[in-house]
């Protein structure tokens, strides 16, 4: 991210954090309205499951109980939809947009296709997620907690693109010394899972909602074997086991058990930086620039009510995982965290993309 982007993003969050709130909030009523929640991915992936999970709960909590309809706008790894949203002007709160790490990473890496600016948008909810990598049954039988026995296998992986969230697994597998050949161009992670199910791919990963929604069934049937999660962050910023999948080792653990894989140094620091940007604040719901403060507050209050429901933790654990949900000031701070990486990490990944995949973003 260039300095002007970073400055404007941090400044926007600082205003929120400083408590510079707008004047008194007027009454908002969405009675009879239809809210379009646009997701820039296909209907088969984790973002679809995330939005479809929250949509009916949001409908129950917004004033007037409007209908919340999830719509999909896949293309160019989500930059098509994000560029579209950048141009939207809706002051009535009837358009909501959902991003994921695959939208954040092109922004962080200065992808020339990016014509959107996160600091222009109004975050009303942000939530974390995790990810699970898994193998087919044949190769999974060789996995012993390290990747040592997997290094002489040629894997195939269905990928949305190396500059998307897929850079986290692709770099992790390279660090483990594995030979994973990505087949680029799929529209969503659900399409990658379908490739795996058809035997066209031999390794896959899904975000938590996608894994819980379908991939866990593959594991239960014996056709897939969990390899690792990306982990989660504790209060000190250390990578620990994912609370949704405590029985599955983290990448950090597998790396420590694998010959030649290091959990310190430039490569590790770059991987961790993009993991942090892509997963603890993985999915964010935005209103367009120019949305009035009363509408923004209505959404923040509604999402706050959703996360405080007595049954929310149980419902979320089954469908999207056990991760924090941020609203209001918390959502603004989370957005900054999810759209910021160090210059060193950015430079490392840009060089790696060029060397590994011939991807130049300059």
Automatic annotation (TrEMBL):
The keyword Signal applies. Residues 1-26 form the signal peptide. InterPro entries: BUG (IPR005064), Bug_dom1 (IPR042100). Gene3D superfamilies: Bordetella uptake gene, domain 1, Periplasmic binding protein-like II. Keywords: Receptor, Signal. The keyword Signal applies. Belongs to the UPF0065 (bug) family. This is Tripartite-type tricarboxylate transporter, receptor component TctC. It comes from Poseidonocella pacifica.
């Amino acid at each position: 991210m260039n300095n002007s982007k970073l400055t404007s993003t941090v400044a926007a969050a600082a205003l929120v954090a400083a408590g510079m709130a707008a004047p008194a909030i007027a009454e908002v009523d969405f009675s009879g309205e239809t809210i379009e929640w646009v997701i820039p991915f296909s209907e088969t992936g984790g973002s679809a499951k995330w939005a479809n999970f929250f949509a009916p709960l949001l409908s129950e909590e917004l004033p007037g109980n409007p209908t919340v309809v999830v719509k999909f706008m896949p293309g160019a790894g989500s930059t098509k939809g994000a560029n579209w949203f950048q141009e939207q002007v809706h002051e009535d709160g009837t358009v909501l947009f959902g991003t994921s790490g695959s939208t954040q990473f092109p922004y962080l890496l200065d992808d020339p296709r990016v014509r959107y600016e996160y600091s222009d948008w109004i975050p009303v909810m942000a939530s974390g997620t995790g990810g699970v990598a898994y193998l087919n049954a044949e190769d999974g039988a060789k996995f012993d907690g390290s990747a040592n026995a997997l290094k002489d296998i040629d894997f195939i992986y269905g990928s949305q693109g190396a500059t998307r969230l897929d850079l986290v697994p692709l770099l992790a597998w390279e660090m483990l010394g594995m030979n994973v050949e990505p087949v680029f161009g799929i529209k969503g992670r659900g399409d990658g899972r379908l490739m795996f199910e058809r035997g066209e791919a031999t390794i896959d990963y899904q975000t938590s909602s996608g894994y819980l929604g379908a991939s866990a069934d593959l594991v239960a049937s014996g056709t897939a074997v969990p390899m690792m999660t990306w982990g989660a962050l504790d209060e000190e910023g250390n990578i620990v086991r994912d609370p949704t999948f405590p029985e599955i080792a983290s990448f950090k653990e597998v790396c420590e058990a694998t010959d030649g894989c290091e959990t310190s140094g430039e490569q590790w620091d770059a991987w961790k930086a993009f993991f942090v940007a892509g997963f603890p604040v993985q999915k964010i719901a935005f209103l367009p620039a120019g949305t009035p403060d009363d509408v923004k507050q209505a959404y923040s209050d509604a999402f706050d009510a959703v996360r405080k429901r007595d049954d929310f933790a149980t419902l979320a654990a089954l469908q999207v995982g056990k991760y924090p949900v941020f609203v209001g000031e918390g959502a603004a701070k989370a957005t900054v965290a999810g759209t910021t990486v160090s210059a060193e990490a950015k430079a490392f990944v840009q060089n790696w993309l060029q060397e590994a995949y011939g991807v130049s973003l300059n």
